[in-house]
């Protein structure tokens, strides 16, 4: 006979503005029935700790075999069917909602990736899911609900992006990190994505997807961010002129570097340097 614990919560006003808000969490031991063509208004995350079964997201992703230790996401508005294929299974589940889900999807998490996967950090997923169920059972204060929201972000990170089977993700991650190392090895050298792809013996599209899987950005998008991070360090820690810093991080055109920096950081390089100098001066008083 199945044994279940379920806690349903209505988050306080304002918690959804944090991006994610937990609306339920629980466990089912010896689950012996299949949920057929259910549709939810928010997201669900399910960790199966024992037993095997099947997951079907109707009209999306097809059918997936679920093994012990696997995790799957159920997006809102998508009819789904899941449950043990023979005997029973044990599961821990969470329900949540919030505007942050769309951002995670765009980065390849939640419904933006593979529906069922082996988590990137299995131990952290088990611990975080247990903590969510425990805290949901006694959530009464705003602080509890904020902690539950933070736990959802931690859970999504621990599950990881779902861009394919674990072996494929591992290979893509290795390629992505090798590409990043090559991109950042010499910032003053012009970057040619096609040439880098040939050096790594992969197609241009494969290279771009591998870098996106690690960084969430295209190679050029990541390189721009990396260059700006290096420029910030030099602006803060050296007396080099802005033009010299621009050249060292790969911008031959001082004016173009200033435009990019201002657009991305929200202030000009000289203003950033002055702000850091003022902040450090205040700390020294």
Question: Any chance you could write out the topology, listing elements then pairs?
Answer:
Blueprint: E1 3-8, E2 21-31, E3 35-38, E4 43-50, E5 53-57, E6 62-66, E7 71-74, E8 80-84, E9 89-97, H1 100-106, E10 116-117, H2 122-136, H3 142-159, H4 166-184, H5 193-199, H6 204-215, H7 219-237, H8 242-248, H9 254-265, H10 269-284
Antiparallel strand pairs: 1-2, 2-9, 3-8, 4-7, 4-9, 5-6, 5-8, 7-10
Helix pairs in contact: 2-3, 4-6, 4-7, 5-6, 8-9
Protein name: AraC-like DNA-binding protein
Domain HTH araC/xylS-type: 177-275
Organism: Nonomuraea soli
Overview of this structure, please?
This protein has helices at 100-106, 122-136, 142-159, 166-184, 193-199, 204-215, 219-237, 242-248, 254-265, 269-284; strands at residues 3-8, 21-31, 35-38, 43-50, 53-57, 62-66, 71-74, 80-84, 89-97, 116-117. The protein is 46% helix and 21% strand. The protein has 2 domains: 3-162, Jelly Rolls, CATH 2.60.120.280; 167-284, Orthogonal Bundle (Arc Repressor Mutant, subunit A). The longest helix has 19 residues, at 166-184. The strands form 2 sheets. The chain has a 6-stranded antiparallel β-sheet with strand order 1-2-9-4-7-10, covered by helices on one side. It has a 4-stranded antiparallel β-sheet with strand order 3-8-5-6, with no helix packed on it. Mean pLDDT is 91; it is low at 164-168. By secondary structure, the chain is α+β, with helices and mostly antiparallel strands.
